[in-house]
Amino acid sequence: MRPLYFDHNATTPVAPRVFATMRPLFESHFGNPGSAHIWGLQAKKAVDAARARVAALIGAAPEEIVFTGCATESNNTVLFGHFPDRSGHLAVSAVEHPSVLAPARALSAAGVTVSVIPARPDGVVSPSDAADRILPQTRLVSVMLANNETGVIQPVADIAALAHAAGAGMHVDASQAVGKIPVNVDALGADFLTIAGHKLYAPKGVGALYVRKGMELPPLLLGGGQEGGLRSGTENVALIAGLGEACAMAAEDVAREAARQEQIRDAVEAGLLGLGYDAMLHGEGASRLPNTTFLGFAGFRAVDILSECVTEDIGCGAGAACHGADTSISPVLAAMGVDRTFAEGTIRLSLGRSTTLGDGMELVERLGGILRRLSR
Ligand code: PLP
After folding, report:
1. Does ligand 1 have an atom closer than 6 angstroms to the CB of 239?
2. Helix/strand/coil (H, E, C) string of 278-299?
3. Collapsing DSSP states into helix, strand and coil, what is residue 170?
4. Ligand 1 atom closest to Cα of 96?
5. What pLDDT shows up at residue 102?
6. Mutation choice for ligand 1 from 100, 175, 204, CB with most ligand atoms inside 8 A
7. Contact assessment for residue 351 and residue 360, using Cβ atoms and an 8 Å cutoff
8. Which of these, 143, 236, 243, lies nearest to 200 by C-alpha position?
9. Catalytic site residue 322?
10. Would the CA dihedral through 291, 145, 173, 214 be positive or negative?
């Protein structure tokens, strides 16, 4: 049976051209960018080129890009950096990734007032709900561009306008959006924007943070002063160059590839909804990532579907997890108020560059067989 990988929102493979770009930087061009000799200069050149390529993909200037170790680090840098005195007000959406929600909880425990902007049943964080929670004393608003589970694309530009009117900074976790849909920091009104390398065919262990020119942010890591002093530590040259190459690849065809994947995704959704089970498409009607479908099947448990998927060589994600006899549903589905019947049987399918229509149809067939077996 050929493996069907439908979990690109968890991580993507490293693209061959990304690997090819990185390889010499591990071997011959291994220098420290801080060194004043040819090896150092080669490494610095690679980092500078990558910075320009990341910036170009999101409409930023190269000096506004800071390389980090991962999206989690980018998010933590922005949130903790805004509240050095652990006071003031932060507004975050209820459907943020744990790398935003956990720092928000830690800040709240330390004295920061935190407001959570709710999500509607379709997963959208509405500007009117945001308006109620953005206050004159708000220092930072953090709302993701695309949700990792539902794929719902949030009305970030409208929320950023509210944040700016209140004098607050706007942080956008775009980890799931960059490389999947066109992203432009000015159109979004983002002051800070998070990028995750391994969600767009670069390796794990590298991320980036866009920091709008003129915005102040203290560093999370102190040391040798690399990355304009915001992120000390010798640059991870090869992985940074890999991220640059991945961004260049996305810049070439992001809209075309999005349209291609959306067609296959829609066919998969239609196929699965047509199997005749009582199913719910989370985020239906909302603007969504073209590669993501998050589907709840009433009367099933995601854990059972996933364990059958392992046998059938399918890689996908779940919207609920089992802890002994208990099932916990994902915080995102809980925030959307999804009925437990559907939440417990929710699986996430996320497509990628290598996914073909044939893969999509084969997936529908195999999942159909799994659901038939489980419902007996
Ligand atoms: N933000 C979002 C929306 C994500 O989906 C993820 C990863 O799933 C992250 C942040 C964190 O990425 P990383 O684990 O690479 O730091």
Report:
1. no
2. CEEECCCCCCECCCEEEEEECC
3. strand
4. 3
5. 98
6. 175
7. yes
8. 243
9. yes
10. positive
Q: DSSP for 209-260, please give it.
A: EEE-TT-----SB-SS-TGGGTB-S---HHHHHHHHHHHHHHHHHHHHHHHH
Residue of 70, 309, 316, 322 marked catalytic:
322
Walking along the chain (376 residues) 10 residues at a time, the average pLDDT comes out as 97 98 97 98 98 99 98 98 97 98 98 98 98 98 98 98 98 98 98 98 98 95 96 98 98 98 98 98 98 98 96 94 84 97 97 98 98 96
> What does the DSSP 8-state code read for residue 2?
-
HSE of 113 in the Cβ direction (CA atoms, 13 Å)?
9
Q: At what angle do helices 357-375 and 237-273 cross, to 10 degrees?
A: 60
Q: Write out pLDDT tens, residues 258-298.
A: 999 999 999 999 999 999 999 999 999 999 999 999 999 99
For tokens 């995601």, name the residue: 302
Q: Check residue 304 and report its DSSP letter.
A: H
> Ligand 1: distance of its center to the CA of 353 in Å?
19
Hunting for tokens 């208990």 — which residue is that?
326
CB-based contact 33:231 (threshold 8 Å): no
What's the confidence (pLDDT) of residue 327? 84
How far is the C-alpha of 277 from the C-alpha of 15, rounded, in Å? 37
Question: Helices 357-375 and 302-311, interaxial angle, to 10°?
Answer: 120
Q: What is the pLDDT of residue 326?
A: 81
